[in-house]
Design goal:
Blueprint (H helix, E strand, L loop, with lengths): L1 H17 L5 H42 L7 H6 L3 H93 L5 H92 L3 H12 L22 H12 L27 H13 L1 H17 L12 H38 L10 H29 L9 H9 L52 E5 L18 E6 L6 E5 L5 E5 L3 E5 L1 H5 L1
Antiparallel strand pairs: 1-2, 1-5, 2-3, 3-4
Helix pairs in contact: 1-5, 2-4, 2-5, 4-5, 10-11
Length: about 600
């Protein structure tokens, strides 16, 4: 029953297309339009593929443009923030997202464009074959029709000639004046014409029968068969286009799960942002370790005019109590951000009290050192021990440096172990190599390890000083000298400790043949010509040579004896005096101080 219905459907389809036998040219135009439609759809998919590739390329370039630079310290610092890590995750997911668009373009090309291009060529060839057969069949039936018409016209013509010959014979036979021979001749001519007409009739009948048979085959068998093939070809074309459109949608659907994962990764990165953690990282990064300065005291200039005679006599008695030590006018402590006195007649005691207050303020010296270090840092002259940084930042930098050196030491140790094993193999198997050839490399590796260990010891010493684990003043000068001579390759002049840092890291004086960074002159209050001389509280001996190029400092020679007029307030500087006119600050670590107990109490 099913087979019967199928045959009926096929018969009806054949009948449907066979009815278009008089529309052969229209069918040819329609099938040509169908091929052009497939080509148009193929071009559409190709342009879509090119758009996907271009979009993927632009997305990749965008992701690459905003990727952090490799081996960039700034980017490494930024990666500790959760927002930067989330942005990096977004860039990576965006790169994968671009890859899925490349997959779409690749699948469109392989599954649709290539297949349709090949199918179009096959479709054109099949269509050409079918219409060639149709044209051939039409040409054959037209030729048969022409032969039939020709035989028909000849038969008609011969019949007319036979009638005329018969009429002429009858006329000649009825005429008494015509000879018997002429009559016989006319009779033979008429008989011949009748025979020719009969032959033409037979030929015409034969051609007619042949044409009718061919015509019947043409319109009932051959042409319907050709049209059936064309119909099947057209249905396959339509079905192929539908499959391609379905594939067009499936290609996008296949990548949706991975695209969803990429979007989920972006969302997860955004949700991992921790504002409080990032803000705490900012605090940790820029924490200086300095103590905030104290309150500024009120300056009562009205008291300067009420100086009593007892204060003057007390000052004179202090000066007479030390007759064996040099006395004279003092410049006072030089300090940044202090304006010069515009009134030289202003009373001495108020200015003295103000100067002593500044000298007793611990954070102020930090300000001076911070000024010098900040300027040096901006000018690109950061010291090796990071003394230009605040204490907390300096500790972090030193710790990172120590970690890097330890990693290098581990690498060199692994390299040394490998060379030792190689040498043992050569000793046991001389044919594999000469053991002595490894010795130069072992010696070089050993030297590298020693250098790195000295470097690590140097930075660990600075780190210990910053963390307060190493008592600097009690350390023997010989060890300090060895420690700091290892870090300087420039020879010192006049046995001075130039290009060396003080043992506590509080002062660094850099001098190079290429460039020398100097702190700009700061305006200090040095117009204290009438100020009374500060009393000495002890003596000191210079352990190192110090040039004192900066304003407010004093140069000393190694082994020189000086007077101490103000001890270290915790900022790493001690105020000393050489004679009446020369006094200033020197690094505390450069001198050995002997305080006078009575003088200190006074």
């Amino acid at each position: 029953m099913v087979v019967f219905r199928q045959e009926m459907v096929e018969e009806r389809m054949g009948d449907c297309w066979s009815r278009t036998k008089d529309q052969f040219d229209n069918l040819e135009k329609h099938t040509q339009w169908g091929i052009e439609f497939v080509e148009r759809y193929t071009k559409f998919v190709k342009e879509r593929s090119e758009i996907e590739l271009s979009y993927a390329k632009q997305i990749r370039n965008l992701s690459k443009k905003y990727q952090p630079k490799k081996n960039s310290k700034e980017e490494e610092e930024n990666n500790k923030y959760s927002a930067c890590r989330a942005f990096l995750s977004t860039l990576n997911e965006l790169n994968d997202y671009a890859g899925q668009h490349e997959v779409i373009a690749e699948n469109l090309t392989s599954q649709i464009i290539s297949e349709l291009t090949r199918y179009i060529q096959e479709l054109k060839a099949e269509r050409k074959s079918h219409f060639h057969d149709g044209r051939k069949a039409q040409q054959h039936i037209e030729n048969s029709w022409k032969q039939l018409e020709s035989s028909k016209r000849r038969f008609e013509r011969e019949c007319k000639e036979a009638d005329r010959a018969q009429q002429y014979f009858e006329k000649m036979d009825s005429d008494i004046n015509v000879t018997k021979a002429d009559v016989e001749k006319a009779r033979q001519q008429a008989q011949m014409r009748h025979q020719i007409a009969a032959d033409s009739k037979t030929e015409y009948a034969s051609y007619l029968q042949k044409f009718n048979q061919e015509q019947n085959d043409h319109y009932h068998t051959l042409i319907p068969h050709i049209f059936q093939k064309i119909q099947e070809m057209e249905e396959r074309r339509i079905e192929r286009v539908g499959e391609s459109m379905k594939t067009f949608a499936e290609v996008d659907r296949q990548v949706l799960p991975i695209v969803g994962k990429c979007l989920d990764g972006m969302t997860k990165g955004a949700e991992s942002i921790e504002p409080k953690h990032d803000s705490s990282q900012v605090v940790e990064s820029y924490k200086s370790g300095f103590e905030p300065p104290g309150d500024v005291e009120f300056e009562d200039y009205s008291q300067a005019m009420k100086r009593t005679a007892s204060e003057c006599s007390l000052s004179n008695s202090r000066a007479e109590s030390k007759p064996d030590k040099p006395t004279g006018k003092s410049k006072g402590k030089l300090w940044p951000f202090m304006k010069k006195s515009k009134s030289p007649k202003q009373h001495k005691e108020a200015l003295t009290l103000r100067l002593n207050d500044f000298m007793a303020s611990k954070p102020k010296m930090h300000c001076f050192r911070s000024l010098k270090r900040g300027l040096s840092l901006k000018l690109g002259a950061g010291s090796e021990d990071f003394s230009h940084l605040p204490p907390e930042q300096r500790r972090k930098k030193l710790q990172a440096k120590v970690d890097d050196i330890n990693k290098d030491i581990e690498k060199e140790m692994d390299k040394k172990d490998a060379l030792i094993k190689m040498k043992d193999v050569y000793v046991k198997n001389p044919h594999m190599g000469d053991p002595s050839s490894v010795d130069p490399r072992l010696a070089e590796t050993g030297q590298n390890i020693e250098k790195l260990q000295l470097e690590a010891q140097k930075f660990e010493g600075w780190l210990a000083e910053v963390e307060g684990r190493m008592p600097v003043k009690s350390e023997p000068p010989q060890r300090q000298s060895v420690l700091y001579e290892t870090q300087n390759s420039v020879p010192s002049n006049d046995n001075c400790a130039q290009d060396r840092e003080s043992p506590d890291g509080s002062y660094t004086e850099e001098q190079s043949s290429e460039a020398q960074i100097k702190v700009p002159n700061v305006e200090f209050d040095d117009e204290f010509d009438d100020e009374e001389t500060l009393p000495t509280i002890g003596t000191c001996k210079a352990l190192y040579c110090f040039e004192g190029n900066n304003e407010g400092t004093i140069s000393v020679m190694e082994g020189e004896l000086l007077y101490v007029i103000e001890e270290d307030k915790g900022d790493g500087w001690t105020r000393v005096r050489r004679n009446e006119e020369e006094e200033g600050y020197v690094p505390t670590s450069y001198v050995e101080v002997f305080l006078d107990t009575n003088g200190k109490d006074a």
